[in-house]
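Appendix C: a fully annotated inverse folding record. The material below is reproduced so that readers can follow the format used throughout the book. The structure is listed first as tokens, followed by the designed sequence.
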């Protein structure tokens, strides 16, 4: 009975923690780190500050947990590790990463996309810890896919290729809902635009292919 009770308490604690992150994530996505208040988060989650401190240590601890959870939703480290072990070509792995990101970009109503965009545009004091602990390990795996595809370790070539490939999609994430984007003449639907960018991304891969470069020589 004691063991069952302890297990139940742990389960309840995990559920409470996840609930607080979900509620806080929505508030941070709407208001950003600097405008969101602990009072609003506690009221929305139906908990007191003591519960937040118990699960996260502090308000900043909660925010870092929100950012980590947001990044996990966008792309999960375990998924990337599994992908790295697959007997796929580097090109297939790069496109698999892109398709995963496209799925998340399409779900723009989800808070985790917006909370991460806000963090990139207006960094909080937690940005360095989140990048080093959460984002950088994933970035290195994706970079390795590109190294293999380009058949080079030259960081200039690798990062230039990654920038050319991913930048249009980052533009969609950052620009969505902004006034300038709302007033673009004859703007296509979001899905049509992403589909066109997906096809263009494959063309970019073709241009960057070492085989293509050798043929041109």
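Designed amino acids, in order:
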């Amino acid at each position: 009975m004691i063991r069952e009770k302890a297990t139940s308490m742990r389960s309840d604690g995990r559920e409470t923690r996840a609930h607080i992150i979900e509620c806080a994530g929505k508030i941070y996505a709407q208001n950003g780190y600097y405008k969101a208040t602990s009072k609003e988060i506690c009221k929305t989650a139906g908990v007191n500050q003591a519960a937040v401190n118990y699960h996260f240590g502090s308000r900043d601890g909660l925010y870092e947990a929100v950012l980590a959870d947001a990044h996990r939703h966008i792309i999960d480290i375990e998924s990337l590790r599994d992908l790295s072990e697959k007997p796929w070509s580097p090109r297939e792995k790069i496109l698999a990463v892109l398709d995963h990101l496209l799925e998340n970009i399409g779900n723009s109503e989800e808070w985790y996309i917006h909370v991460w965009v806000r963090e990139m545009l207006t960094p909080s004091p937690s940005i360095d810890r989140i990048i080093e602990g959460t984002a950088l390990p994933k970035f290195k795996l994706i970079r390795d896919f590109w190294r293999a595809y380009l058949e080079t370790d030259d960081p200039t070539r690798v990062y230039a290729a990654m920038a050319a490939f991913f930048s249009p999609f980052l533009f969609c994430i950052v620009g969505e809902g902004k006034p300038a984007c709302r007033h673009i003449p004859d703007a296509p639907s979001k899905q049509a635009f992403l589909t066109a960018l997906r096809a263009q991304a494959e063309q970019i891969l073709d241009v960057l292919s070492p085989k293509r470069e050798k043929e041109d020589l």
